Amino acid sequence: MLFTHATVLTMNSTREIVEDGAIRVSDDRIDAIGKTSDLVTAHPDDDVIDLSGHIVMPGLIDTHVHTAQCMLRGISECGAVGEFSNWLFGRIFPLQGSYTEEDALASASLCILEMLKSGTTGFVECLLAERYGVDQIAQLCIDSGIRAALGKVVMDVSPATRDELGWHPGMWQTRESSIEGTVAAHETWDGAGDGRLQIWFGCRSAEPANDPSLFREVSDLAREREMGLTIHLAELPHDNDYAREHGYRSHVEFAAGHGLLGERTVLAHCTIADELDIEILAETGTSVSHNAGNNAAAAWGPARITDMLDAGVNVSIGCDGAPTNANMDLLRDLRIACHTARQRAGDRAALTSEMALEMATLNGARALRTHSYAGSLEAGKKADFITINTDAPHLQPVWNPAATAVFAAQGGDVDTVVIDGRVIMRAREVLTMDEEAILANVRGRFRGVAERAGVDGLASAWPTA
Ligand SMILES: [Zn+2]
User: Fold this and answer.
1) Is the pLDDT of residue 383 over 90?
2) CA angle at residue 339 from 335 to 342, to 5 degrees?
3) What pLDDT score was predicted for residue 302?
4) Is pLDDT of 301 > 90?
5) Residues contacting residue 178 through CB under 8 Å, at least 6 positions apart
6) Could you tell me the distance, in angstroms and rounded to a whole number, from the CA of residue 126 to the centre of ligand 1?
7) What confidence tens digit (pLDDT) does each residue in 108-142 have?
8) I need a labelling partner for 282 at 20 to 30 A (CA). Which of 299, 314, 427, 459 fits?
9) 13 CA to middle of ligand 1, Å?
10) What is the Rg, in whole angstroms, of the alpha carbon atoms belonging to the chain?
11) Which pTM was predicted?
12) Centre of ligand 1 from the C-alpha of residue 34, in Å
């Protein structure tokens, strides 16, 4: 199959851009990339998809996703949410803790559909709870065609702490069962879907609720089993207070002391990481997921992203949860990342379009541990790419395709998505999912979840007739 007449951002080692370029795909791999005229002449009998006017780039990778939260889209904007703990224990946990498996499947389907439609070809789920039905979510990922690392929840919160915090029982399980369930899911699902699916540890945060010995046990297990691990870390100032209570200077040093850092680990947020923390993150090869849109909406940070990149930390991008960020459009979050990094630095060159695209592709692939075969468009690598149709007023003219992608385009401009050599979306129609049914299902369910959870006030502050 030949994809022709596109502007190809290869993201290869020289970051070569091919004008009037073509990509030849054979099975799941890229067979060749070059000028359209050369590839058409060399392969006259191939089927052709004409991409005139499209920018082609590697598929985007979202390294911090809560699939269960898409059904809660925008609810942080429904009235005052108060402190983080009120938001979490008073609103989010009661809702998610009241999910049936059908609700969780509806939300995850919506999330994956939205990601595919906005150009995300791989993602890290950070907290997949057992009540959501691990098997059905794994199967959903495989059927949709996306790449995924599912971080299955592990936790150690005593019943007394749970009750004291008002932690919803639907979001709780014992340490033993949470670890056993994760190991079992790893044995069943890791490598499924031709290697598109991975099972990771999704640690609940290092906070007073969790017994710290959990982290050593889980990091040892991750090492033994060569599993990935993801955790929210160094998110808010109280995280450093917690670390100090345990004899560490910072939350990052706490994580290092409990074996949580390393090349298999993706840390979400790191909004309060300082210079010494950044050195540790770089030395240990730990990946950081920068959650620009969510952090800005929640008034967290700003994270020292450009300092991290300068120090050699592998920084990728994650949309985080839809309650606050309201959106899984990674192109939009790339733009917010550039805006906020520049404002913080007082320097408009602080984070360029090119750097942002590297974060969402090459760095994302390293975080997802797919970098040996994905993240750039090169002969021999997997055919994971997306196209942006620039035939639109807000996308013309194209001076610099990287800037068009990051600063002008939005998820709705993504036209075609190819993963593992398979066309997953063409002309904005996702071929692997039933969009109409997914939207109808969510519309029919979301209010029922709030009723069951007993959470009210989830509406506009304005009178509604
Ligand atoms: Zn998160």
Assistant:
1) yes
2) 135
3) 85
4) no
5) 130, 152, 153, 154, 155, 156
6) 7
7) 999 999 999 999 999 999 999 999 999 999 999 99
8) 299
9) 32
10) 22
11) 0.98
12) 40
